[in-house]
Structure formats: C-alpha cells, structure tokens
Amino acid sequence: MSSFERSFIPYGTHWSTPFAKWQGSLASLHPLRLGAACARAHFDRRGLDPTVLDTVVLGWTVPSQQSFYGAPWVAGMIGAPDVTGPIVMQACATSVRTIQTAAQGVETGAHEKALVLTVDKCSNGPHVYYPDGGAPGGTGKAENWVMDNFGRDPWAKNAMVETAENVAREAGISREQQDALALVRYEQYTRATADDGAFQKRYFLPVEINPSGRKVIGTLDADEGVFPTTAEGLAKLRPVMPEGTVTFGSQTHPADGNAGCLVTTESYAKELSSDTGVTVRLVSSGEARVKKGFMAMATVPAAHQALHRAGWAASDVMIKTHNPFAVNDIYFARELGLAEDSFNDFGSSLVFGHPQGPTGMRLVAELIEQLVMAGGGRGLFVGCAAGDTAAALCLEVNCA
User: Fold this and answer.
1) 212: confidence class by pLDDT, cuts 50, 70, 90
2) I need a labelling partner for 389 at 20 to 30 A (CA). Which of 137, 196, 234, 383 fits?
3) How high is the mean pLDDT of the chain?
C-alpha cells in the first residue's frame, strides 16, 4: 500500500534534534535511550500523554547495545509500557519506510495513533565479530559496522563515494558544478539559522547531554559540524578519490541525532494538533532501484513513482531531498527540469549531516514547516539509500 487516504501527521507532533558531528557531543550517548528521552521531552513540551499511543514504529540503521529489544523498550522508557511495535531498518530510506509502516497500520485500521521514532549514531559504531567454525583455527570475521559499510556494497562492490563518481562521469557532472551546488545549499542553510535560528526552532528539540545518566553537562541546541563554506574554500579541497570529482565539501558528513512524528487518523490529528487550522495529510510513497553503482540516480524514479501515485507533477510541489552528494541534486534537477536552487530551501543533509535513519524524518519536518509558512501546499521528500535505491514521500498541508 503506497497511496494513503486516512493517514495524517498531527501538526506540531513532528520534531528533530539538532544533528551532532561525528564523534561530537552525542557520541557517548546510547541512541535508543536518547531517542526515548527526546520523545518524552517532546510529549511533555506538547502536553501529550504517551499512553494514548497504540503502537511505536522504531527505525535505526546502526545497532547499539540491547537494540534487539527495540520498540517495546522505547515504549516503556517514554511512559507507554503497554505498547509494542516493529523495528524498521532500510538504510537511508528508513525514515520513509517507518512513516509508511505507521500509515499502513492506520489505513488498514490496525492502529490509530502511532509514534514514529528514528534514531541513529554513526559515532562509536559497533565492531562485530562473526564466528566461523569452518575456518582454519575457527577464526571468525570482523566488521566495523559503520566504516566497512560506507566502504563497500557487497552487491555492487563499490564504496558509497564511487556511486557518486559513477553518476558524475556518466552524466557529465563536473567538479566545478558540484562545488557551485554545495555553495548554494550552504547559503540556503544559512537562512534556517538566521534570526537566531527562527526556522529551525519551529521543529528543533534541544538535547540535554548527560553521559553518566545523572548530571547534565550541556545542551545541544544547534547543529554541530557545519563548516562555513566559500567558493575559495571549496576550490582548495582535494578529491576524495584519485582522479575524482567529489571532495569533502561536496558530500555530507556522518552525524548523530534523532527525529520523530505521530501518524494518526484524521480525527486524532485534529485532536492532537497544536494548531487545529493546519492539517498534514500523507498522500503517497515511492521507491526505486537503479543499476549497480549508480545510487544518486535512484531519486528520479522514486520521485516519479510517488508523484504519479499522488497524481501530481514536479512543478506542483515543494521539494526536499536527502543529498549525500552534490551530484544527487544536480542530476535530480536536470532530469526533472528544475532549477537547482528551486528546492531544498533552508538547507539539506549535504550541509547539516547525515545520521542515516533520522535524516529523512528531519527533512520531512522541515518540509511541513516550509509548507505551513507558505500557507499550505503539496510537498515531496526524496532521498537515496544504500543498495542503489531511493524512497520518496508525498504529503499535503492545508492551512485554514
């Protein structure tokens, strides 16, 4: 089920923490414990009772200690101990898949009030040992969950950055074009931080930092790891790969954080909304997979599928993309006939970082707020994901 009729996000029940840089302020915090604490803080701030929930959909891509217990553990920590739900993991498409999973429950009548929580921490990723009794001496195999999977797709047999280089080479996207796009996206992001971060405060949930679990030693209330970007600075950077075009200035950086929302029926959306004059309706989703090693291309067919199911055209919608590489947005704009600066206003993951599971959820929150500021309208989120795939989500905001 990828078209929705009964599923809504109650306005004001979406949030994201600021994103922290790799090995930064959130590196020592347990992502599920932190996600539960943030969800509870959000409920408290909104005056919502977590016992109204009838399911929790938890999304993550990097395992952490005891994450096996997933949504039931999180539900208990937020104050809804009678609630259960699934763990959803689909690489960088996790946010769309968790929202879709919750919406499918609403559409079928299985649930009426779902919490969708996405959590991840790229910092201090787990080191996994897989025993192999058939190997000489019983020697097993080790995996660095984060770094090894950044570095090699076992099917396409290439690193993530190589997928961007493949698309750049085939589509004729130059280093200079990528640098120019990175600068545009940075300038768009600075609008989100203007006026003391007025736009981000519409959905940001500050994070209390308490590594010991007892004493709070600080608060993360702004993105950490965003570097001032200039044309001169970008031009000085060396390509990541020999003879390549992608630099550390034209790709995102690993990050930590969490984000979430509620997905409910229309009646509960009206009841739980912070503004009864605003409705946020989920309309459709889409997904796609392209040829091996060309991940950045997958956003185009995924977007087309979601738009087709909604009955919309790209010219009808406000667009946010998860763009781990500048190549993504250049190719996407070219294929959909869009100006590169016509989407991702207020920034994107290319600039503020990528904790994987929560990235898309934050961009959906931004999309909702941008549409509310515009007086309503139609929106599309789309982002690529590991395995040369992508996922997309269409939603509609109406303002009375």
Assistant:
1) low
2) 234
3) 96
CB atoms within 10 A of CB 51: 12
Is residue 73 classed as helix, strand or coil in its secondary structure?
helix
pLDDT digits (tens, 9 = 90+) for 109-119: 999 999 999 99
- 389 has which bridge partners? 289, 385
Cα–Cα distance for residue pair 219/236, rounded to 1 Å: 34
Helix (H) / strand (E) containing 369: helix 359-373
Coil, strand or helix: which one is 111?
A: coil
CA distance 28 to 380: 34
Output the CATH code of domain 160-196+278-399: 3.40.47.10
- Per-residue pLDDT, averaged over 26-37, amounts to 96
Cα(224)–Cα(213) distance, rounded to whole angstroms? 22
Q: For residue range 61-99, what is the model confidence (pLDDT) as tens digits?
A: 999 999 999 999 999 999 999 999 999 999 999 999 999
How many CA within 13 A on the CB side of residue 35? 32
Backbone angles phi, psi at 338, to 5 degrees: -110, 150
Question: Tokens in use for 320?
Answer: 């946010």
Q: What is the pTM of this model?
A: 0.97
